[in-house]
């Protein structure tokens, strides 16, 4: 019986070590991509175009595209919705989380699905759908114009409901035309004193 610690620890399984190293490296590059919003979205657009080109050239996998489209609508709704839905707020003593009048205190819009997670989920969805096009089991024969019509109707109805929700609770999920904090500006007397 070796009590002094002479027995060596078992070495980690090579597959588990590789998985851990890959996960760590993937997270590192994912973190590095966070501030590069335009580059991330351009990459996702490229992946989406490659997927669309593959579906067009194969003339199939329309059911995969339809499922992808429904998933993208679901993500878009999460991206356009506030983190706390005003309809679900308790109307008791608690103040509303979104400003409802011009005199209310400015509160920034906090999304239910942040931009980075929105981008990441869309990119993963395109990659999964692209990989599904390599397996013929997912190429279910369907009349694609009907699926397209269903998707357009679903999109219009969902966006109409979301826009009416935005109008009712007076919020805009984009930064266009909103006040931005620019920091404190020095007064003219202190700036002239610095020059002298």
Task: Provide a descriptive summary of the structure in words.
One of its GO terms (biological process) is protein retention in ER lumen. Involved in the retrieval of endoplasmic reticulum membrane proteins from the early Golgi compartment. The protein is flat, with a radius of gyration of 25 Å. It has a domain at 60-173. Helix content is 58%, strand content 0%. Helix 2 runs parallel beside helix 4, helix 3 (62-80) packs antiparallel against helix 4 and helix 3 (62-80) packs parallel to helix 5. The N and C termini lie far apart (82 Å). With 196 residues, it is an all-alpha fold.
Shape label: flat
Largest sheet: none
- Helix and strand run: HHHHHH
Number of helices: 6
List low-pLDDT spans. Answer: none
Secondary structure category? mainly alpha
Q: Kindly state the percentage of residues in helix.
A: 55-70%
Strand tally is: 0
Strand percentage: under 5%
Radius of gyration, CA atoms, in whole angstroms: 25 Å
Mean pLDDT, to the nearest integer, reads: 82
In whole angstroms, the N-to-C terminal distance is: 82 Å
Function: Involved in the retrieval of endoplasmic reticulum membrane proteins from the early Golgi compartment.
Keywords: Membrane, Transmembrane, Transmembrane helix
Protein name: Protein RER1
Organism: Colocasia esculenta (Wild taro)
């Amino acid at each position: 019986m070796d009590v002094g610690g002479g027995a060596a620890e078992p070495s980690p399984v090579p597959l588990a070590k590789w998985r851990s190293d890959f996960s760590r490296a993937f997270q590192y590059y994912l973190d590095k991509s966070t501030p590069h919003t335009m580059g991330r979205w351009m990459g996702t657009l490229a992946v989406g175009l490659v997927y669309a080109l593959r579906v067009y050239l194969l003339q199939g996998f329309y059911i995969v595209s339809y499922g992808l489209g429904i998933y993208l609508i679901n993500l878009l709704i999460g991206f356009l919705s506030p983190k706390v839905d005003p309809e679900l707020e308790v109307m008791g003593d608690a103040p509303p989380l979104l400003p409802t009048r011009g005199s209310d205190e400015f509160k920034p819009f906090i999304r239910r699905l942040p931009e980075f997670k929105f981008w990441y989920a869309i990119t993963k969805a395109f990659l999964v759908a692209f990989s599904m096009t390599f397996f013929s089991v997912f190429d279910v024969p369907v009349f694609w114009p009907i699926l397209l019509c269903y998707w357009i109707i679903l999109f219009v109805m969902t966006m109409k409901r979301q826009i009416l929700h935005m109008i009712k609770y007076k919020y805009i999920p984009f930064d266009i035309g909103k006040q931005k904090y620019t920091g404190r500006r020095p007064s003219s007397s202190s700036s002239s004193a610095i020059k002298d």
